[in-house]
Design goal:
- This protein is an alpha/beta fold and about 270 residues long.
- It has ten helices and seven strands.
- The strands form two sheets. A four-stranded parallel beta sheet has the order 3-2-1-4, sandwiched between helices.
- α1 packs across α2 and α9 runs antiparallel to α10.
- The relative contact order is 0.13.
Amino acid sequence: MIAERPSSIALETRLRAIVRSLGSCVVAFSGGVDSAVVLAIAAAELGDGALGVTGRSASLAERELDGAVAVARAAGAAHEVLATRELEDPRYAANPADRCYYCKNELYGRLAALAQTRGYAYVVDGFNCDDESDVRPGRKAAREFGVRSPLAEAGLRKQDVRDLARRLGLDVWDKPALACLSSRVPYGTAVTVDVLRTIERAERAVCDAGFSTCRVRHYGELARVELPLDELPRIAADDVRRRVLDGVRAAGYRYACVDLAGYVTGNLNGGA
């Protein structure tokens, strides 16, 4: 017999109880829906005992940083931006399959030091139950630094998180999954500041052409553009196609192609 899933209210109640039991915490806040829910609940339950911190480096697009600041402000949460230096680690820059471990090792190390210095009891993240099935080398770093994951502890899946974010009035409730700019670079291809800035400029140009989201996968002089499937037909219009092509070329690419499979989260994890 399959156990019945707890109601959304029961899950929220459980989540709030877990967050209250922390006493105080630093929230690793990316600006995505998962960490936004954790930060909003932490701010509501712990008040001054909750602090959201966003790591800033070349791997974070400026528009994502601006969005994170706006979400934290709307949630009434204390929020800070902390510089991280993962690109200075040659192990990260070499872009191995476990690149995310070195990124999270840098981030959680700095957050743990901040929490200890200022007297916060825990560092927490936005990991949820559905994330268990994804490729996430960064979980090793989370375990090493004792990072808590209230969403997973409370049994929330991705849809539960989105439903709760909507009830909380968070504008990011339907925001596509967030991933750093380095995730656009195939494993084994070096990650540099110049490469990341080129990707960021290209993605901005595509979105400015009217697409809700996109991914620009980096292959040297070639940009492989992924668009949401329901928006893919728009690229056939001459004016839209020209704006995308001109924007991607202006960003620094010589060639651009559109992936007919559409936008797929974690596409490069499968070697695509």
